[in-house]
Write a structure and sequence with these properties.
Number of helices of chain A: 12
Shape of chain A: globular
Oligomer: homodimer
Number of strands of chain A: 25
Structural class of chain A: alpha/beta
Strand order of the largest sheet of chain A: 3-2-1-7-18
CATH architecture of the largest domain in chain A: 3-Layer(bba) Sandwich
Helix content of chain A: 25-40%
Low-confidence stretches of chain A: none
Largest interface: A-B, 69 and 69 residues
Mean pLDDT of chain A: 97
Strand content of chain A: 25-35%
CATH topology of the largest domain in chain A: FAD/NAD(P)-binding domain
Chain lengths: 446, 446
């Protein structure tokens, strides 16, 4: 039996490795268009911040290891061009332009996502970068090394934009963040966003929301970024305005695509065609709170979905539960995290939304070194259910978020969550954990 | 209506404050035998470690505030001597030896716990200390200030013993820990205990398990601690061998006591007598995993139980869910945490126990500054349920424990927990969180 995989990143290589572990006799082939497989994409901003480290430090497992130790037929430099679901065949083209055909019994599409490049003049100029693939990270590192970069203009204010603002500032560069809409992260409660924005400004980052960029143009060896109320000069521009699922191959093969253009899959990661699975940033998922299809590209799910595909291909029946969009990032001295629905998402999904923001402390009364923890919690008045949590703070945020994520999977009510027996010690929080205080406050509004 | 409370610490003052918030017209009286109310007992080791801070920094709210701002009849220096459940009357004695009687409609016994003093010669010598009340903490600080203490011998290796080892070492003192039984913390998986013991030794603490202390004696102005295979000299001895519930009043009044001598209460915190509640370290609770009565004295539960009593006294029907014994402490650079059952407790409770220990990392592949995280996870082969988790590590342990605690309340299976959508970013953990890796490994043994 031949298991063919298009895409050698998180979902693809997870599936390949697990399939071989499940069934060593299985023939597993991976087609990867770039030269890189199995690297920590999320680690790129931290790697870029460190001139002393090569970008290849992020490679978790080299192609040879997959080939020689694991017996996976891994073809780098092979771009899949077409899927023929009836003939169960994929046509690829090599780096040298040679077409090659690969037959399969089961196919996994793990083509990931691609960065959105705003359609403005100058977006293809040298020095205008994106950050998604290891090649992108390599290009940014090389550019920063080769040029006398002093100021970087970042388009966007999402995770990548903020992580890169920190990385570039760590390199001693001036950073300006700009985006067309007001506010910072679109999903974030305004009270929490204000904390993040204050931290960015405190760290010397220029934050310019509500500005549309119309053009990037060369200007005396630099780059000029202009719009109706914007005129900036920098040495590099990073377009971090988002990503979109790379679902063109799937779509051209007649597979059903949906939310945000992502490939529609069932709980087994199967597409609208029996023998074809999709996993990772190119595929959609069901939301664990609403039950509706969503597209939330994140690393853990990509790995997990890759495993699920491998298990299903090998004859186990593996169905994944829904996603919560649990995410965390670090921006300078702050930890920012979310899980589940925002208040707005909850309203849109038809819940009778109640929400609260509390400010608590990261350590107990009288314990030195405490800082503020801000918790935004959303519940449903109708059912009493907990719907979502966001947090910002200098410590104790990233892992604290795991608890409401588990509560959301368990469909706990806010009251049940408020009664959770959470561990307490003075260096780690108040007796009433910030999460419990938020739940207690939210209960009063339900 | 008169609500009388015996004991002015966590449970007692939580109940008093909440009752007054619920019903400002309620007459609330608190009898506290010491001069101190509402202080952060758990903060004492950290306060003792800091010569520059007064022990009274740990007072959260002063007695006058309770009296004047909250209208609570707070009588410090009043020791309750007898409860007459039929007459609904408590007899107390003042610091000056005057008897006073207090009638009640509802009574809360919140007498807490008292430290166990080993019954050995010399246990009452000056310089032999315990640490439970603020007065104990004050005495230790004063002793350390007044004497040229160089070495402290700590009897016991529980939370307090370990936290105090760190505190005393921070003051530049030599510390020896000793206990009769082998091993470190009795509940801890040996692989994890070895990590904690190595940290203690690395920090210069002498660790002598398996030694029985038979006698403490004065010796040239110092204290000599001896036993069959022990002969130590120090300037102070801290007896930290455990605590027991202070249930003598309740027992003498004919109330039912049970596990470890704790006052037996129902989910509403009601004792075997209708009008009498108990809460805090003197009361038992039901375990959320086994459903059985347990005595696990911890601060959050004391506060929560105090609230529950106030709500019930005020006519709301408040039933508390079970406890998990979730606990965390810091010992030097390590965070140590547990929730739910140990493998041994699980076996004793009749579960078909499966357990695993995994070693993971606190940060992602290639992210600088990572350290080891050790996770011990226990499940039930019969039902598939998650039963308990223990963790040790330098970072990312304390709050990560919240997640399995919530999962235990929700009676999640190990498989469900293994599918939780936990947030990931390179500074905070691997893509597969250590908890998920432990769950994945445990699944293979179930």
């Amino acid at each position: 039996m031949h298991f063919l995989i298009i895409g050698g990143d998180a979902a693809g290589m997870s599936a390949a490795s697990r399939a071989k572990r499940n069934r060593p006799d299985l023939e597993v082939t991976v087609l990867e268009q770039t030269a890189d497989v199995s690297y920590s994409a999320c680690g790129m901003p931290y790697n870029i911040a460190d001139r002393g480290r090569a970008i290849d430090d992020l490679v978790v497992r080299r192609a040879e290891v997959f080939r020689e130790k694991q017996g996976i037929g891994l073809f780098t430099g092979h771009r899949a061009e077409q899927i023929d679901p009836e003939a169960r065949r994929v046509t690829a083209v090599t780096r040298e332009g040679q077409p090659r055909e690969f037959a399969y019994d089961h196919l996994l599409i793990a083509t990931g996502a691609v960065p959105v490049r705003p359609a403005i003049p100058g977006i293809d100029l040298p020095g205008v970068m994106v950050l998604k693939s290891l090649a992108d990270g390599r290009a940014i590192k090389e550019y920063l090394q080769a040029r006398a970069v002093r100021r970087v203009i970042v388009l966007g204010m999402g995770y990548i934009a903020l992580e890169m603002a920190e990385a570039l500032a760590a390199l001693g560069l001036a950073v300006t963040l700009t985006k067309p809409r007001p506010g910072l992260l679109p999903w974030m409660d305004p009270a929490l966003a204000a904390v993040v924005e204050a931290e960015l400004r405190r760290q010397g980052v220029e934050v310019l929301p509500g500005r549309t960029v119309e053009r990037i143009a060369p200007s005396d060896g630099r780059l000029r970024v202009t719009g109706p109320d914007l005129d900036l000069e920098g040495d590099m521009v990073l377009a971090a305005v988002g990503i979109r699922p790379e679902s063109r191959l799937a779509s051209a093969a007649g597979l059903r695509c949906g939310v945000a253009g992502a490939i529609a899959v069932d709980a087994r990661q199967r597409t609208s065609h029996d023998r074809i699975y999709a996993a990772g940033d190119c595929a959609d998922a069901f939301h664990a709170v609403t039950g509706k299809r969503v597209w939330i590209p994140l690393a853990l799910r990509a790995n997990r979905a890759g495993w699920a595909v491998a298990d299903n291909v090998c004859g186990r029946d593996c169905r994944l539960p829904g996603v919560l969009g649990s995410a965390v990032f670090k921006v300078f001295d702050l930890q920012v995290a979310r899980t589940g629905l925002t208040a707005e998402e909850a309203r849109e999904a038809g819940f009778e939304t109640a929400a609260v923001v509390v400010q608590s402390r990261s350590r107990a009364h009288a314990h030195p070194g405490a800082s503020e923890i801000h918790v935004h919690m959303v519940g449903d008045r109708g059912s009493g259910r907990l719907l979502g949590v966001q947090m910002v703070g200098r410590e104790g945020v990233a892992h604290r978020l795991h608890a409401p994520a588990v509560a959301l999977h368990a469909q706990m009510s806010v009251e049940q969550f408020s009664q959770a027996d959470l561990a307490y010690a003075p260096p780690f929080g108040p007796t009433w954990d910030p999460l419990l205080t938020a739940a207690n406050q939210l209960l009063k509004r339900m």
